[in-house]
Amino acid sequence: MKTTAKWYSQRVQRDVRMVRWGTFGQPVLCFPTAGGDFEEIERFLMIKVLSPLIDAGKIKLYSCDSVAGQAMVQREGSPGHRQWVLNQFHQYIRHELVPAIRNDCQNPNIEVISAGASIGAFHAAAVLCRFPDVFSKAIAMSGTFDIRRFMSSEKFGDDYWVSSPLHFVPTLKGPHLDKLRTRFVLMPSGEGKAEDISESWALAKVLGKQGIPNRVDSWGKKTPHDWMTWRDMLPKYLAEMVG
């Protein structure tokens, strides 16, 4: 079963869209790549390969527009504005999208698995690290985790630093860090065409220094940065996580 929703978000100051596949199971929020939209994963056949888990009631899969990614790709406004959109996008996820997911699941406390590839992997890892009170695990495939080069700027303000796990995780302490140490970030990556597994290792080092459980899985030098890779990865890891 596919269901869509649309509303205006004051946080990102635009219309936002969400889609859900499935009726029962563990909620999974899948972020699009770069400037992708809420139905990108369907067009690239991810729903097809995840259908056994969806049809078996193991997962309910959600996706949304990549608001921050679209702002970066389209060079919306100034670099400072794009950094603001990045932070506000994560706030929209926490304070609008997660409540919508919980309402749809009829469970006000249910935890969510985040997932995504490339820039989507950045968001999957970032929301878990920012909001470990609602996200339990992240599957960050072929991650691009240092996104400063996409901001077309040499100046970065608080909106960026609080949104980038490479940079804010080393500053964490107290209850936030305690909770994050009960979570898990999985970073599978190929080492073939257009892949850069060093990005995953860099985030793993930052997480590891703070005692946050994580793992990098290499899929080898024949595995490219492409949807055929991610269609193999995500069903495998979700099946392991949901049992």
Give the end-to-end Cα distance, rounded to a whole number of Å: 21 Å
Evaluate the radius of gyration: 17 Å
Mean pLDDT: 97
Q: How many domains?
A: 1
CATH class: Alpha Beta
Judged by helices, strands and strand pairing, the structural class is: alpha/beta
Helix content: 40-55%
Strand order of the largest sheet: 1-2-4-3-5-6-7-8
List the quaternary state of the chains: single chain
Count every helix, treating DSSP H or I runs of 4 or more residues as helices.
10
Share of residues in strands: 15-25%
Provide the CATH superfamily. Alpha/Beta hydrolase fold, catalytic domain
Weakly predicted, low-confidence segments: none
CATH topology, by name, is Rossmann fold
CATH architecture: 3-Layer(aba) Sandwich
What does this structure look like?
It is a single chain. The chain is of the alpha/beta class. It has one domain: Rossmann fold (3-Layer(aba) Sandwich), CATH 3.40.50. It has 10 helices and 8 strands. It has helices spanning 40-43, 46-55, 67-73, 79-104, 119-130, 158-161, 165-168, 174-180, 197-209, 227-242, and strands at residues 2-9, 14-21, 26-31, 59-64, 112-117, 135-141, 184-189, 214-218. The protein has an 8-stranded mixed sheet, with helices on both faces. Helix 2 (46-55) runs parallel beside helix 10 and helix 3 runs antiparallel to helix 4 (79-104).
